Amino acid sequence: MNKYIVILLVIASYQLSTAQGVTGKWKTYDIFNKNRSESIVFISIVNNSLYVIIDEIIPEDHKNDLCTKCTGHLKDKPIDGMVILEGATLKNGIWQGVPILNAKNGKKYGCQISLAAPDLLKVRGFVGYPIFGKTLYWTRVE
Questions:
Q1: What CATH number is given for 2-141 in this structure?
Q2: What's the pLDDT score for residue 6?
């Protein structure tokens, strides 16, 4: 009986550390040029759901960009401060279940986010199924 309690505690502590490990500020990189910093995003967890907000746009010439290609309530809104992912849930160490917005092209993609290392976030964007996508890595900002 004690063995099962220990296993449950290990699983719960792993999920809690994974949940807390993704929060904070992360630097994103241009999908076509990994060496070019694109933005700083802020990740928070509210009621066990993950949210990603664009906190700062890095290239000076894009700081005031609007989401001209977005649709609905985001159309022509400032990209800086925009919520690009809201409500992902943690399952087996991966935040998933909701799309992420690419504010450059206005499209939403399936998304899976997981901690690859303490200061490295693995972000998988995809169309339909995760196999049809691209993995990006975001680095933690102190």
A1: 2.40.128.520
A2: 35
